[in-house]
Amino acid sequence: MNRSPAADRIVSAAVTHFAHRGYDASSLADIAEAVGIRKASLYAHFDSKDDLYMQIFAEALRMEQDIAHQCFVSEESKTLPGLTYCTNLIARYDESDYLKFLLRAGYMPPAVLAVPIYSGHETYLAQLQEAFTGRLRAWTDTPDTLADEDVRLYSHAYIGIVDSLQVKLVYTDTAHAAVRLTALERMLSNALATAIKSGAVA
């Protein structure tokens, strides 16, 4: 996204405010003060608080989609499908205001912006599900080891895992999210092993 240096400074300050305070508790006056400009000067770059918020949301969403894609394409062939992204998600959370912003927006969206935010969040989850499906197909010994219905079932289960981890990150902390991932990883691994064994026997 092409922005002026001044707009970049505004976005940088706004991401931090929105990520840590939320939409309602973040004011344009506070953001302007953090940048060292007058509030009125913000309107030379953004039409409104909603415009600023949604531009950041779109950017954060693109960044997360790119990271997720890289996690899936670089995942080791023997690694449980999707585990790399889940681990990466937890590892980045404390240091990334963009990730904090994205998850806070997804689970606690401003009422006035809920519809486009939910739409963007669902698109992101659908892309994760598609990536997981591809990895699961490649992970099994043969393409027909799991029936199509099983693949769909486990792809939905994976999105449930991601959703559960993100909720833990938003409402608790990375330590609790890591404990949950360990438990969910074992459950998914055991379930897949059983399903693959059954498919091979059949």
Automatic annotation (TrEMBL):
DNA-binding region residue numbers: 27-46
HTH tetR-type domain span: 4-64
Molecular function (Gene Ontology), one example: DNA-binding transcription factor activity
Entry keyword set: DNA-binding, Transcription, Transcription regulation
A Pfam family annotated for this UniProt entry: TetR_N
Protein name: TetR family transcriptional regulator
Lineage: Bacteria, Pseudomonadati, Pseudomonadota, Gammaproteobacteria, Pseudomonadales
